[in-house]
Design goal:
The protein has 164 residues and is an alpha+beta fold. Helix content is 35%, strand content 19%. The chain folds into two domains: 7-86, no CATH class; 90-156, no CATH class. Strands 3, 4, 5, 8 and 9 form a five-stranded mixed β-sheet that branches. Bound molecules: zinc ion.
Length: 164
């Protein structure tokens, strides 16, 4: 779970900019933008928190642990549903893919598949770690749930003569 304090809703508004309404606790989006799935995720998370705490007091830590594991699984299921509901595979007519936890746009004519090696644009971190120029990454997932601006993949990475 990556619930951080002091978050904003971040859903796209009618004007296209991310919603800046602050959300707290288990909420996934603000009251205006939360879907039924968002509310279910928040509710399951909230319930896990409350019941885990209550069980911990009433019946010892071990039953509480299995209960929390069950609720965590349920939250994960709901988060997967949420991911599927929010995931888009194209932005502005271009394919979008995930490389690790970051999302990129692909302007090439031949679609990328999971496992394809690509050249990613240099960023401040890769510049420090690996020097200037693009870095090689591997497509881990198709589509994205990210709604901010996306960097473009530089190109397909050269193949490594089958020694890879
Ligand atoms: Zn909102």
């Amino acid at each position: 779970m990556t619930y951080q304090p002091d978050r904003t809703c971040g859903r796209p508004t009618r004007s296209g900019t991310p919603c800046k309404i602050r959300i707290s606790g288990s909420d996934v989006a603000c009251g205006t933008h939360a879907t039924e799935q968002d509310k279910a995720v928040a509710e399951a998370h909230r319930r896990g928190w409350n019941e885990g705490w209550k069980d911990g007091c009433e019946s010892g830590a071990s039953s509480s642990k299995s209960h929390i594991a069950h609720l965590e699984k349920r939250v994960k299921e709901l988060e997967e549903q949420l991911d599927a509901a929010r995931r888009v595979y194209e932005v502005d007519g271009c394919q979008v893919v995930q490389v690790g936890k970051y999302s990129y746009r692909w302007r090439g004519s031949d679609p990328l598949a999971v496992g394809d090696r690509v050249l990613l644009p240099e960023n401040w971190l890769s510049k420090i770690k690996e020097g200037p120029g693009p870095t090689v990454g591997v497509v881990t997932k198709l589509g994205t749930t990210y709604r901010g601006s996306l960097a473009d993949i530089v190109g397909r990475a050269p193949t490594t003569d089958g020694t890879d």
